[in-house]
Write a structure and sequence with these properties.
By secondary structure, this protein is mainly alpha-helical. It contains 23 helices and 2 strands. The chain has a two-stranded antiparallel sheet. Helix 16 packs antiparallel against helix 17. It is elongated. The relative contact order is 0.09. The N terminus is likely disordered.
Length: 513
């Protein structure tokens, strides 16, 4: 510990507190003041120090610590360094519990560890526990609580280097993404990326985490070029990262950009790599996301039977983990596949309860990836006409954790404007298509307008353009030509330059990448 750190410790504890600690330890060991002081100091000096009348130097404290058989840190702060080691081991175990078991059980462990870290004055360990708690409640669907935990962690680490704060920043960005605040999510991530690169804090782990998390909001805003560049930069950073969980998350994010480019075989290969890593690490929620995204890939390729199978696996895995919002988002994707297979009654039966159930508190996500190839409200093809088959290409709504409200007894949380807004729009879009197919134009229009109201606040440009096209076509067929023209013009406004009207300059890139 350097001179400045020693000064901080002495200031925090005070000369009197250190003096009392030296007296207690000396008495416990049966030393006289002379025995403790020699050969470097005098008994009088130790007496003065024990009475709190002198502020000991670092050299004196190190001498006394060695004679007393304790560490310098324990003498200056009163904390046993083994406490920090024990807490860090506990935090690792809690993280494993979140990955492989029940989020609520893991949250209980993180809560206990956070309280102990606070009692011992271990700030870093307390911040780590707060991020863990945020991840837990994000997985169970409590967005408001998750944001509060991440913000508290950031405040605790305000004086720490930015790489230390990145997990909390990424968690907060995911909360905003799932709340439908796409632009603010991008702002948080881009600001952190800029600061890391501009200040020379080239931390590969932190940058990989941020670039991967940025892919989802970029894609949903229609900023596909930025999403693709983030994927390229993440791939370039990967060889410098030794965390397999981060690498798996990166492969999931990269798959989203490949799907959007129509490179489904490569996307499936990237997902296979992620799935293999998650299976090795036994990370169940993220493994479910891989099944989710692979279901989406199969749906895009027209292999609806395999798509349904993968999506049902994902839904069951997420439901067993009580990942509330993730579960209902998968059900929106599954309903789209069922509709395309001609099973519209089943699709409608899945969708309607999702929109009727109010959330108990807020929204969902986990390791920060989201819809792989566009959002659930429907991807727009290169010509602006949307998916050829009219499907709702959403895919997983988060590579990070969460869903506010959680799974209550007897049901799971629903979709609202603040609780999975993009997939809520997707559900209304699908219900509109189903209503059109059975000739109920009035109900179809109601669902399309509800979807537009949900998505306009998110800035999901491609989805909005596609919905305006569907609404315009419906109105035109009903003879309401002027209203149809208004809908088309509204859609062109969203489609004109996806992502470019709401985002500033692209963030700085790492040197040499």
């Amino acid at each position: 510990m350097g001179e400045r750190s020693a000064g901080d410790a002495r200031t925090a504890e005070g000369a009197a507190e250190i003096g009392r600690r030296v007296l207690r330890l000396r008495t416990e060991r049966g030393f006289t003041q002379r025995q403790l002081a020699e050969p470097a100091y005098t008994a009088a000096y130790v007496s003065t120090l024990e009475s709190g009348k002198v502020r000991p130097s670092e050299a004196a404290l190190r001498h006394l610590a060695e004679r007393l058989g304790v560490s310098y840190e324990e003498l200056t702060t009163g904390r046993d360094p083994r406490d920090a080691i024990r807490l860090r081991a506990g935090l690792t175990d809690a993280r494993k519990a979140l990955a492989t078991g029940d989020a609520e059980e893991a949250a209980g462990r993180f809560q206990e560890l956070m309280a102990e870290a606070e009692r011992l004055g271990l700030r870093d360990e307390r911040a780590t526990a707060l991020v863990g708690l945020g991840d837990c409640v994000l997985e169970t669907g409590e967005l408001t609580a998750a944001r509060a935990h991440y913000e508290a962690a950031e405040r605790l680490l305000a004086d720490e280097p930015l790489p230390r704060r990145v997990p909390a920043i990424r968690g907060r960005a995911v909360v905003h993404f799932l709340s439908g605040e796409l632009r603010y999510s991008c702002y948080l991530l881009e600001s952190a990326i800029d600061e890391l690169n501009a200040s020379g804090l080239h931390d590969p782990n932190a940058l990989l985490l941020l670039y991967t998390a940025a892919i989802a909001p970029y894609m949903d805003m229609g900023a596909h070029a930025r999403a693709a560049r983030s994927a390229e930069l993440a791939l370039a950073l990967a060889p410098s990262v030794d965390d397999p969980g981060l690498i798996a998350r990166m492969h999931r994010g990269v798959a989203r950009t490949l799907i959007a480019e129509g490179r489904t075989a490569e996307a499936d290969a990237s997902l296979a790599k992620a799935q293999e890593l998650y299976e090795q690490l036994r990370i169940h929620t993220d493994l479910a996301h891989c099944h989710w995204m692979r279901g989406y890939v199969h749906a895009q390729d027209g292999n609806l039977e395999r798509a349904e199978r993968e999506l049902r696996i994902a839904r069951d895995m997420l439901a067993s983990k009580r990942a509330a919002l993730y579960t209902v988002q998968v059900e929106v994707e599954l309903a789209d596949v069922l509709r395309r297979r001609g099973r519209t009654a089943e699709a409608e039966a899945l969708l309607l309860p999702l929109l009727r159930r109010p959330p108990a508190g807020g929204a969902d996500s986990a390791d920060g990836e989201h819809s792989p190839g566009g959002s659930a409200a429907g991807e727009v093809a290169a010509d602006g006409e949307g998916s050829a088959d009219g499907s709702a290409p959403g895919g997983p709504a988060a590579d990070e954790v969460g869903a506010e409200g959680g799974i209550a007894e007897g049901g799971i949380a629903g979709l609202t404007a603040e609780h999975g807004a993009v997939h809520a729009g997707g559900a209304h879009r699908l219900l509109g298509l189903i209503a059109e197919e059975r000739g109920d134009a009035r109900t179809a229009e109601e669902h399309y307008r509800a979807a537009l109201a949900l998505l306009e606040r998110t800035g999901a440009a491609g989805d909005l353009a596609d919905l305006c096209r569907l609404l315009g076509d419906l109105l035109r067929r009903g003879g309401r030509v002027e209203a149809a023209m208004d809908a088309y013009r509204r859609g062109l406004g969203h489609r004109a330059a996806p992502g470019t009207t709401t985002l500033g300059p692209a963030p700085a890139e790492p040197p040499g990448v």
